What does this fold into?
Amino acid sequence: MKKLVLSAFALASILAVSCDSEDDSAEPGNVTVITPGGGNSSTTPDAAGTAGDNNLDYTKGTPVDISAWTWRNANISASDEATENLTGELTADRTLDANVIYGLPGSFIVQDGVTLTIPAGTKIIADAGGTNVFIAVLKGGKINVQGTAANPVIMTSENSNTGDWGGLTICGKALTSAGADGTGEAVAEVGNFAYGGSDTADNSGSISYLVVRGTGASINPESEYNGISFYAVGSATTVSNIAVIDGADDGVEFYGGSVSATNLYLENNEDDAIDWTEKWDGTVTNSYILHTQNFSTVVEADKDNGNPKLVNLTAVSTVGGTALQFKKASGATVTNLSLTGYDKDFDIKDANLFVADNVKVDGATAKLK
It folds into this structure.
């Protein structure tokens, strides 16, 4: 069992943070978090270290206001029926027609040098074909999703059941710690697509007002498609106002790269809402996560630390569970964090690999004793 100590400058309280059993490499350790300032605590400190208590005592931030995010509720209607399919490889620039409902019976792959433009209000209905059904943008390709608050773009299966299809995968030329020596290139676990390079400011297009439902098809017991997978996507790519709902795996996952995102709504994704690895160093600003069904974590951070930033993160659970989880030497700078209803607010999985100063919450630094 880990112990979490929080204080206002010199004042410290000893709290318990227990490890879950998923990672056998986790070792007992002590974490000290110095929290400057003070203010209202999000939890009641548990000096006895009772397992299961909501035991991270931090200064709770202001929740993200999503009252105007009505676009997140967009979905297809019972009468919607696809009249044209998206299939195979896209080898020339194409703009879809918002007046056409598109079917996705299999894979649709945007090739290098090609741009797919999806105008506001477009609906794409995926077959419930598991890992055979997905949209992918390869290195050098671009996707421009041009949704609006009044007319978001929708990508969903007919019934939006978890795991129905593979979701959206974007591969870029930015840095990844998984990249091979000399080329910086790696191979994605989904589709075996190549990704990564040396162009931090690579541009894979733009995504605005996109709602994705029913993703997370399982490749094997260790790998699944996410709602949206960002593989070494560069900082010139813009991502804002996206919702991923009812996914069998992660809502969004960043595999290296420097892409940032603003206004994320992530509801009932069964693994992690926000996941990153391979030294991703972007920023997520204004994210709202809702859990009313079983899940893994709000945030899973893994491997090398690129010091990504989470600004204005709100997460609410009605089923307990774990909020922020950091594995190996990962970390993040977190500003304005609001957590409600979780059994564990903060979890260090690998105390033996944890690097001091890698995790900061509103200026507080987590350090192993």
About this structure: The two ends are 14 Å apart (CA to CA). Residues 57 and 305 are 24 Å apart (CA to CA). The longest strand covers residues 205-213.
